[in-house]
Design goal:
The structure is a single chain. It contains six helices and three strands. The chain is mainly alpha-helical. Helix 1 crosses helix 2 and helix 5 crosses helix 6.
Length: about 160
């Protein structure tokens, strides 16, 4: 709540937080200490608490980086990371914090740009030609077991 109150004091009504990535790779040059750590339960608990605290003060919060960005060992701003994970490992690791956050829900989800394509293909079992909204939404629906995309936060 303090973060949200500080943001409101300077007329900021949205923040790009919380980071919901599980930091499973110590060599990850992108996430590092922005994550709540390597334990998916801890990331889930602290991420949801931060999300709720921010939004309880009428500041928009963003869950990022869907569908998880805690495991590459290269900088995804410059190169497409390889992810050897199967759907089962995604279910029990990277997607856990997003499922919990979406149940609250955040104002929006921040996708992790290039690394999303391989994950969405894995989740939907289809090859995407682009990261069109329909593809991201489809991946999100499959990832969280929903029949529709989450509704926006309204206060």
């Amino acid at each position: 709540r303090i973060l949200a109150r500080e943001m409101r004091a300077i007329n900021v009504d949205q923040v790009n937080a919380p980071v919901l990535d599980v930091d499973t790779n110590p060599a990850n040059p992108v996430i590092a200490d922005r994550s709540f750590g390597p334990d998916p339960d801890l990331v889930t608990r602290l991420g949801v608490a931060l999300l709720q605290g921010i939004q309880s003060e009428s500041v928009a919060a963003c869950g990022k980086h869907f569908p998880g960005h805690g495991d590459p060992s290269n900088d995804s701003h410059f190169d497409l990371p390889h992810r050897p994970h199967n759907l089962d490992s995604l279910e029990h690791l990277a997607l856990l914090p997003f499922r919990a956050a979406i149940a609250n829900p955040p104002t929006w989800l921040f996708t992790n740009k290039n690394p999303l394509a391989p994950r969405v293909r894995a989740l939907t079992r289809t090859t995407l030609k682009s990261l069109a909204p329909a593809g991201v939404t489809s991946g999100l629906r499959v990832a969280i077991g929903a029949s529709s995309a989450p509704k926006s936060f309204k206060k």
